Amino acid sequence: MELTGLSVDQAPPISAPLRFFLTAPLFGVLAGILILLSDTTILISRYSTDSIVITHAITIGFFAFIMLGSLTQMLPVLASAKIQNVKNITLISYFLLTLGLLSMIFGLKLDIKLLISLSYMMLGIGFLIMILSILYAIKGVKHFTATIKGMLASLIFAFMIVLMGMLLLSEYANNSISQYHYILANVHSVWAIFGFSGLLIIGVAFQVLPMFYVAPKFKQFCKKRVVILISIGLFIWLALNIFAENYALYAKLWIATFFWAFATTVWLKFNRRKRAVSDVTVLYWRAASIFLTLGSFLWIFDEFFKHEYIVMVAILIGGGFILSIMIGMIYKIVPFLVWFHLNAMGYMSIPTINEMIDKDLAKIQFTIMMLSLIGFIFAFYMPKLLMPSAVYFIISMLILEYNILAPVFIYRRTKKTEPDFDMSAFK
User: Fold this and answer.
1) Cα separation of 133 and 61, whole Å?
2) Contact (CB, 8 A) for 426 and 57
3) DSSP assignments along 187-244, one per residue
4) What residue numbers bound the domain in which 389 lies?
5) How many separate domains does the chain show?
6) Do 187 and 238 contact (CB within 8 A), yes or no?
7) Over the stretch 47-62, which tens digit does the pLDDT of each residue have?
8) In whole angstroms, what is the distance from residue 162 CA to residue 168 CA?
9) In a domain, 83, yes or no
10) Has residue 283 been placed in a domain?
């Protein structure tokens, strides 16, 4: 593993990212339970209350929590950009986002307007505190690498989708659904998937694939042009949706082509690794490439079927691509965090990064997760698969939670012992 360019002294307290990582699978469990309590209508309409609740339990509760936790750790370490007052910022944001998401879920599910009103205020403030703090930290970066540019573009889209989300939720709270509500909801979802999540994954991949997997570096065209070209495509798609909807397909083709190219590039880079040692994270990256390819093509063809398959697109790209990448990276990030912080404190006799998580149990979790995602897809044609797929999803998230806790337990046990050598002289 290549660790060049990492800044140890800028790293935030380990609790800052860990609280996000440890909570994410629990919201995944909640999403699975919500699927069990719903019916097959969630596969038909993305605008049904159940669909909205389940979608946000995953997109905010899992995706956003993992992404914010990762940014908290990676930005200072990779770019030497320190988030001011990071301990308090992350703690406040974490509680606001957790309470806000729970208020949204139960407010919409039970039609309690007060909870919905509280949710858009707490979610909005929780997200904006983190986004603005990270953007302020990025402002001080002297050398803008391709990864930092990807993070910056992603956060700009995140800022805009948070404002959209607050407006959409306020309309539910006030029983005043405007004529532009569903157009805004469509933009909100597409920008969340491709703008916030997609660009962040691409930007992080520029650094992570060579660092963690000793894969070939991305070409300069990818590093310098892809993020900006996708961003331009997303803004063109927005303009066409508002002013010339019949031509929006061309912008979708533009966006989908670049994401399909990214999926293909990732697959090829894993084939050309210097050390072709496979683990569950490699399986997740490969699965993500396949899901993204299928989802990108279906997103285009869905245009000719009056958006009949848009929920399946969301499962393929949101579940298959983004979820797979998030889980794959969490299996790398959490052990790395534990090893990184313990080494910085002087502990040397600790398990290696690859020894902190049970490999066999991680592969079992991967298999169950893939079965659940495939089951959700085929549930469009065989509705009876929805419930067992939800059960598989819950089980996989519970195993993931256990696997994340394992390195944390190592960290806590090790902290109770004396360091292998005295670090006090360096403080």
Assistant:
1) 20
2) no
3) HHHHIIIIIIIIHHHHHHHHHHHHHHH-PPPPPHHIIIIIHHHHHHHHHHHHHHHHH-
4) 277-414
5) 1
6) yes
7) 888 999 999 999 999 9
8) 10
9) no
10) yes
